[in-house]
Every structure is written in C-alpha cells, then in structure tokens.
Design goal:
Length: 464
C-alpha cells in the first residue's frame, strides 16, 4: 500500500475496499500524456518564477519524459491504491528523481490538474472529430456530385411527396453535419481555456505566472475565476450535447439506409463488405452497420444524461462526484469517432439504384402539387386549384391511373384552364428544374450548392 499525500491528517490507513471503490485509474490512465504535458509546463513555470531552480526543473522534466516513455512501452505498473493517473505519475517520479519530485505539486491541486488534463484531451479529440466530419462532408458532396442526375421521391410522413434530386437529399445531410461542425468549433473555444493555477478552489499564495503556463500549453485564454475553473464541466456537457445532436443526424441517415436497402425500397445496395448475413437464413443481407450506428445513438444520449444528472445539484466547487465525468466523455468520444469512421468508409461504396428511384418518383401522384401550381398560375386561387386537383386524383384513383395518364378532355372536366401543355408541365424532370427558389431541388440550384460546398470544404481543410 502506497503512502497517501493526505496521510498526515488520518490516524487509520485507507481500507482496501475504499481504494478499489474510489480508484479511477482504469478509466483515466488514458490521460497520461496530458498529465505529463501539463506537469512539464507547470514545472517550467515554477522555474520561470523562481519557485524552484532551473536545475530542479530540468531534473523533473527528464523524469516526467521517462515516465511517459515507460507508459507508452507498457512497462508501467498501475495500482488501485494510487487512485488516479496523477498520483501514479507523481509516485513514480518520486522513485525516479527522489524527494525533489515533491516540489512539483507546489501551487497546484489535483482539482485544477484534472481540469487541465481533460481540457487538453478534449482539445485534441474535438480537433480530430472536426477533421473527420470535414472528411465526412467531403464524401457526401462527392456522391451528390457524381449522382446529380438521379431523381428520387422526396418524403413527408414517410409517404411519397414530390420528386427531388438524390443529390439534393444528400446535401441535406451536408447541411446537418455543417451545423455539427459549427457546434464542435464553438465547443473547442469553450474547452480551450487554461484552468491550472486555480489550485483547489481559491488560487495560490505562490507568485505563479498563469499566462506563461497558458502560452506553453497553447491556450488562448486563462480561466477568470478559480472556483469556477475547478467546478466547471460545462465544456464537457456542451461536447456531449453536440455529440448527441451529431449522432441524431447519423441515426436518421442510418434509418434511411436501412429502409432504402430493403427489398420494399431497393433504392440502394449496401456493399457486401459492410453487411452481414444470417446464421439460419442463407439469403439474408443485413444492414448491421447502420443499425449499430442507430443503436449507439442511444448510448451517447445516455452519456449526456449521465453527466447532466451528476452535475445538476453539486454545490461549488469540486466534489468527488465529478470523477464520474470521464467514463461518459471517453465513451462518447470513442463512439462518435467510430461512427464517423465507419460511415466515411461505407458511403463511397453504396450502390445507387437510379432506375428504381426514378420509377418510384414517377408514380403515386407526386405531380399533384405541380398541377395545382399550373392552375394557380392561370387564374385560380391556390386553394381552389388544390380542391380541383384533389377531385382529379379521386377520379384517377378510381380508374387506377396517374394524373398525367388522364386525357386532356377529362382534365378539362375538372377545369377549363387545362390545355395541352399540362403534360409537359407534369414530367418529372420539369417538376425538378422548375423549383428554382433558393434552396430548392432544381438541378441548377443543387449544382450551385455543391460548388459552394466544395469551396467551403477547401477553406475548412486549409484552416485545420
């Protein structure tokens, strides 16, 4: 059993069951590189402000670098009695450089130390997610560009509504992931604040230079209130919220891929390398990848609710409950990155069934709104036109015909405003290309949206 840093106050040793219960090393050991990074910066600041000597600083930094190499090589021994990664590194440093290691914790608490480690970790991971999302958006734009001529039925209430370009439908997800990207960029700003120097909650009596430490660690801002700095987990909750919304978008896309790849739709084919079979039914090809992404969405939601519940009634400043922030954070990072990665791999390999999509867009009275628009441009109010077309649909249903299959004579029985040009007006391609309102599905609009997206992606990649 290792000596605890607080042993001077206690008359009994910590019970081994308490050590196991309070230990977080299995979870937070992945923070080791950030703990070392933060400790080295803190060490340099202590030397810069003459709180310790340059010689002591050099010795401590060498020891910390050696410990990092030991962990990376798998030569480091972890022990529940040391609770967390901070105490593991501090204890190993004491073994490596002797009593001088005990100076490293000067003007620092585990409270601001862990806040720093998590912010450093999140800063890196948010940047990774941002990079991955940009690649994801690039894949969507490329598929849209390569399928600009593919027409499909658009849906409301999961009922065929109006024809749209597949590219237009895909670019809707580009917009969703662009908003996700904006949220993660905003989250990065709120994460990129340096808390070290807040100590336990009240700051420190030592003449530290927090701006110097922030510069070493590339933080553009320093926390303004020491109590808030150690009590704050808003930046994690914000990240989990952004991740949850992002997973909603992946889940919606997954649902469509599941539906579209079914025999009932047959709009797309999933690549064999991204599907599985049945253990009993030889014919089956199951959409396990999108199904799992859809399922993992609930897991990320749960992580957000978990942290919100942990933080909802904690008094200021630090409470041990906050140790439980890392498991939902780490799991969300891993889950979101895995979902983005698998979709980036799968999307370019989807098989588009162009003929099936066009056929589905050509039947089911998807030209009804256009017929009403036709009448509205020729003198009827839209409500009158709507009623008129509704009556035409009722008749067409009884005859098992589409609107464009009715004779001009029959159409004139519903309104004298119909003329021969109605049939060209109701072609699927015409219906698509007339929708020139900004953001509409007209081919020219979608091509312009793709070009703008390509320029935006070029800029986003350039500023990474």
């Amino acid at each position: 059993m290792h000596k605890k840093p607080w042993d001077g106050r206690f008359s009994e040793k910590t019970d081994i069951s308490v050590e196991r219960f309070t230990s977080s090393i299995d979870i937070d050991k992945r923070l080791y590189v950030y703990d070392v990074q933060g400790s080295i910066a803190h060490c340099k600041m202590l030397a810069e402000t003459s709180i310790i000597s340059e010689e002591e600083s050099s010795l401590l930094i060498q020891g910390l670098a050696k410990i990092q190499r030991e962990i990376e090589r798998g030569n480091f021994e972890f022990d529940d009695s040391l609770e967390d990664i901070h105490m593991h590194i501090e204890t190993r440093l004491l073994q490596e450089v002797g009593k001088i290691a005990q100076k490293l914790h000067t003007a620092r608490s585990r409270n601001d130390q862990v806040a720093l480690d998590v912010r450093l970790y999140m800063r890196d991971e948010i940047k990774n997610i941002i990079t991955d999302l940009i690649s994801m958006k690039s894949s969507i734009v490329e598929i849209a560009k390569n399928n600009i001529d593919v027409i499909m039925p658009g849906y409301t209430h999961l009922q065929r509504a109006q024809p749209v370009l597949l590219a237009h439908h895909l670019m809707a997800y580009y917009e969703m992931f662009s908003r996700d990207l904006a949220r993660f960029n905003e989250c990065l700003k709120h994460t990129n604040v340096m808390p070290l120097g807040s100590a336990a909650l009240a700051g420190t009596t030592f003449p530290i230079d927090r701006d110097y430490t922030a510069k070493l660690l590339d933080f553009p801002a320093v926390s303004a209130n020491s109590i808030d700095a150690v009590a704050d987990r808003d930046f994690i909750m914000e990240f989990l919220s952004a991740a949850s919304i992002c997973m909603v978008h992946f889940s919606r896309m997954s649902e469509e891929h599941i539906l579209w790849s079914s025999s009932e739709f047959n709009f797309i084919g999933l690549p064999d390398s991204f599907a599985t079979g049945s253990s009993i039914m030889p014919q089956k090809k199951n959409p396990d990848v999108p199904e799992l992404v859809r399922g993992k969405t609930g897991r990320v939601f749960g992580n957000l609710i978990s942290l919100l519940t942990i933080m909802k009634s904690l008094p200021l400043s630090y409470n041990r409950d906050m140790q439980e922030d890392k498991q939902p954070l780490f799991d969300t990072v891993d889950t979101l990155k895995a979902c983005i990665y698998i979709y980036r791999k799968m999307l370019p390999k989807l098989e588009i069934n162009k003929e099936k999509m066009l056929k589905a867009a050509s039947f089911g009275y998807l030209n009804a709104t256009d017929m009403a628009d036709y009448l509205a441009t020729r003198g009827l109010t839209f409500r009158e036109a709507h009623t008129c077309v509704g009556e035409a649909i009722s008749y067409a249903l009884s005859m098992n015909k589409e609107l464009h299959e009715l004779s001009l004579e029959k159409l004139k029985s519903f309104s004298s405003l119909f003329s021969e040009d109605i049939f060209d007006f109701l072609t699927t391609k015409q219906m698509i290309d007339r929708r020139m309102s900004f953001g509409g599905t007209a081919t020219a609009n979608v091509m312009d949206a793709i070009k703008k997206a390509e320029k935006r992606l070029y800029y986003e990649k350039k500023v990474l």
